[in-house]
Write a structure and sequence with these properties.
The complex is a heterodimer of chains A (228) and B (465). With 228 residues, chain A is of the alpha/beta class. Chain A folds into 2 domains: 118 residues, Rossmann fold; 95 residues, Winged helix-like DNA-binding domain superfamily/Winged helix DNA-binding domain (Arc Repressor Mutant, subunit A, Orthogonal Bundle). Chain A contains 8 helices and 11 strands. In chain A, strands 2-1-3-4-5 form a 5-stranded parallel β-sheet, sandwiched between helices. A 4-stranded antiparallel β-sheet of chain A has the order 6-7-8-9, with helices on one face. In chain A, β3, α3 and β4 form a beta-alpha-beta unit. In chain B, α1 packs antiparallel against α4. In chain B, the strands form 3 sheets. In chain B, strands 1, 2, 3, 4, 5 and 6 form a 6-stranded mixed β-sheet that branches. Chain B folds into 3 domains: 152 residues, PAS domain (Beta-Lactamase); 84 residues, Helix Hairpins; 150 residues, Heat Shock Protein 90 (2-Layer Sandwich), CATH 3.30.565. Classes of the chains: A alpha/beta (228), B alpha+beta (465). The interface between A and B is medium-sized, with 25 and 33 residues. Chain B: Member of a two-component regulatory system. Chain B: Keywords: ATP-binding, Cell inner membrane, Cell membrane, Kinase, Membrane, Nucleotide-binding, Phosphoprotein, Transferase, Transmembrane, Transmembrane helix, Two-component regulatory system. Chain B: It comes from Pseudoalteromonas translucida KMM 520.
């Protein structure tokens, strides 16, 4: 999976590149609009991450050129200005998603993965499994090591989300949005409480822990392997 | 029609113009009245005189006279004590019988209207030998003799007098008009003095001396209203300015805490070599502080934008039951942890608000209520129709009463009723400010009361289905 990042801010570019490379992507970093434009027009990428405020060629121009060339590579744009006009403009010009600075790296990763997934057709599995946990979505049955686990509706949705995005760090706001349809940043510890309860039912009685807290970022579900 | 935005006429100009038009009109009226009454008086005087002269002449004619010489002498004495007066007697055929001077009017006499007796209506104006005369021709019969008696007054003197009089009248008029205008201008100028005084006082108001107020008792009655409004404006500005100053101070404080934490921890962490876990711990801790900072900054930016009217709500019709249920479900676990129950009251109402905004504001109100409700108690969420066009969603929680003096400031950014209260990682005191901004952006209102319960009432427009 090849990514192009066009970002003139040195530190932001470096860390994005490092983070995404460590997440298993091949990352190409352009530090100005001109190089970014050239790369976007001449090479193939799976996702382009585009900063809008570039010193020479603006992100809008690059986006326009890419779309004019009938190239529909997913584009995620980064904007420091949280103005509705910017968002609308970006989406009108054919961007697929946007992030407002400052953003959490986990958020970037989640968006990029979503964009890549959107590219291919995803077969939604009916039965999700990890380690000795099995989740049958249509039957709404959950078993761990053969024992039935009873969950409330929201707990069920929360576990399903964690399973479907196995290995990804999910931020609290993403969980609130996906499970409870609360699409705003909140100060409450609702998600933490919900995860704690889910852990009580899914993890507490078992030696292998599946739900993990990633401090400062959110939660992820995976079988603990290496030292983390 | 393009709008002209020319400055309106100056006050002085308005008043002076208004007075000028009135004064000039009045003076002109007075002048023409005086003028015409003098003329009228002259005419009266002249006609009376002409009649007297004609009658005197007639009386002489009526007497017996021995000869024409005697008649002439008698006629020459007929009129005495009149200046600029001429009379003559002609026969009916126009033969001159007597004339009082060398001015002969025979030619005019024959064409003038005349009648028996001394009829005023027959008075005419004549032009003869470069003079203007007022004259009366009367027929007079005595002893089968018919005479035409003519009396004429030279009007040069009158005309001269009138001309003189008119001239001085106009001079007086013009003079008094100018004088009145000057006085009016001066009066207006003086009248505006208090305004200039006010202006100077206002000019001296500085942001660090915002407690200056204009004294209402020291201005003329007409300006009291303006001064009152101005003082009210100053009150509002000062209040807003104080809030803004406090806000800046609060921002600095709020930012200082996490920054201090980050710097201290990082410096301590770097003083010696540590193992991997400790470095991770340090980074995690920094990350948490930075998240706090980010959240605060984005909340503040968001608030700033709503205050500049940049947040446009995409209003939709919401069902209160649906929204409240979703939120109660969201807070279910948290409330249970805190040993607090929710009580839902009232009926489903439809109202007009952006869904995301409503959920966020109710979420803030609920988390606030959970924070201050003692364990074992319950929070009431009520929805009801108010009148025909409003709905009210209330969040009511028991707990410590909020003192009345705090209530007006509760929705201010960073305002905390209890200054000593520890910030327990639950936001930076922007929650209620955001609630208020959201409510306002959706055309609603929010009111808070606090007695044995603290009650937030949010009013929205109800859309008739």
């Amino acid at each position: 999976m090849r990514l192009l990042i066009v970002e003139d801010e040195i530190k932001t570019g470096d860390y994005l590149k490092q983070g995404l490379t460590e997440a298993g992507f091949q990352v190409c970093l352009a530090r100005n609009g001109l190089d970014g434009h050239h790369l976007a027009m001449t090479e193939l990428f799976d996702v382009i991450i585009l900063d809008i405020m570039l010193p020479d060629v603006s992100g809008w121009r690059i986006l326009e050129s890419v779309r004019e060339a009938k190239n529909d590579t997913p584009v995620l744009f980064l904007s420091a200005r949280d103005s509705v006009d910017d968002r609308v403009k970006g989406l009108e010009l054919g961007a697929d998603d946007y992030l407002i600075k400052p953003f959490a790296f986990s958020e970037v990763l989640a968006r990029v993965r979503t964009l890549i997934r959107r590219g291919g057709v995803q077969k939604v599995a009916d039965i999700l499994t990890i380690a000795d946990l099995e989740m049958d979505i249509p039957k709404r049955k959950i078993q761990r090591a053969g024992k039935r686990i009873l969950l409330s509706n929201k707990e069920f949705s929360l576990l399903e989300l964690l399973l479907r995005r196995e290995g990804e760090v999910l931020s609290r706001s993403l969980i609130a949005s996906q499970v409870w349809d609360m699409n705003f940043e909140s100060d409450t510890n609702v998600i933490d409480v919900a995860i704690r309860r889910l852990r009580g039912k899914v993890d507490d009685d078992y030696s292998i822990k599946l739900i993990h807290t990633v401090r400062g970022m959110g939660y992820k579900l995976e079988v603990e392997n290496a030292q983390n | 029609m393009p709008k002209t935005n020319a400055r309106p006429m100056s006050l002085t100009m308005r008043v002076v113009l208004f007075i000028a038009v009135t004064v000039i009109a009045c003076l002109t009226l007075v002048a023409s009245l005086i003028n015409s009454s003098i003329e009228h008086h002259f005419i009266e005087q002249d006609s009376g005189e002409l009649k007297v002269i004609s009658q005197s002449v007639a009386a002489v004619l009526a007497q017996q006279h021995s000869s024409s010489t005697a008649l002439g002498q008698a006629l020459s004495k007929a009129v005495a004590g009149h200046h600029g007066v001429y009379y003559q007697v002609n026969s009916q055929q126009g033969t001159l019988i007597y004339q009082s001077s060398d001015r002969d009017f025979t030619k005019q006499i024959m064409s003038a209207p005349s009648a028996l007796g001394f009829n005023r209506d027959n008075i005419v104006l004549w032009q003869a030998n470069d003079h203007t005369y007022r004259a009366l021709v009367s027929d007079f019969n005595v002893q089968q003799q018919q005479y035409k008696i003519t009396a004429a007054i030279d009007m040069s003197f009158h005309k001269h007098f009138l001309r003189q009089f008119k001239q001085s009248l106009w001079v007086i008029m013009f003079g008094s008009a100018v004088l009145i205008l000057l006085v009016a201008w001066f009066a207006v100028h003086q009248g505006l003095n208090p305004l200039r005084g006010l202006s100077k006082k206002i000019y001296d108001i500085q942001t660090h001396k915002m407690d200056v107020r204009l004294d209402e008792s020291k201005v003329p009655i007409e300006l009291v209203n303006m001064v009152h409004s101005f003082n009210a404006m100053l009150d509002r500005l000062q209040d807003e300015f104080m809030r803004l100053s406090n806000f800046s101070t609060d921002i600095a404080h709020e930012l200082r805490t996490p920054l201090t934490n980050i710097i201290t921890q990082t410096q301590v962490g770097l003083t010696k070599k540590r193992d991997l876990v400790q470095y991770q711990e340090l980074l995690f801790s920094n990350l948490e502080e930075l998240e706090r900072l980010t959240k605060m900054v984005s909340d503040m930016l968001w608030l700033a934008k709503t205050q500049n009217g940049l947040i446009k709500a995409q209003q939709q019709v919401l069902q209160s039951d649906e929204e409240i249920d979703a939120l109660l479900e969201y807070f279910d676990a948290v409330a249970e942890d805190a040993n607090i129950t929710f009580i839902k009251q009232g009926s489903n109402v439809e109202f007009y608000c952006e869904q995301l905004h409503f959920r966020q504001l109710l979420s803030n109100l609920l988390s606030n209520a959970i924070r201050y409700t003692p364990a074992g108690e319950s929070i009431t969420i009520k929805s009801e129709r108010i009148g025909s066009d409003q709905v009210c969603i209330s969040v009511i929680n028991p707990g410590e009463k909020i003192a009345a003096e705090h209530l007006p400031y509760l929705f201010d950014r960073f305002y905390r009723a209890d200054k000593s209260r520890q910030r327990q990682g639950n936001g930076a005191g922007l929650g209620l400010a955001i609630v208020k901004a959201l409510v306002t952006a959706n055309g609603g209102e929010i009111v808070v009361t606090s007695n044995e319960n603290t009650r937030f009432n949010v009013f929205f427009k109800h859309i008739k289905s």
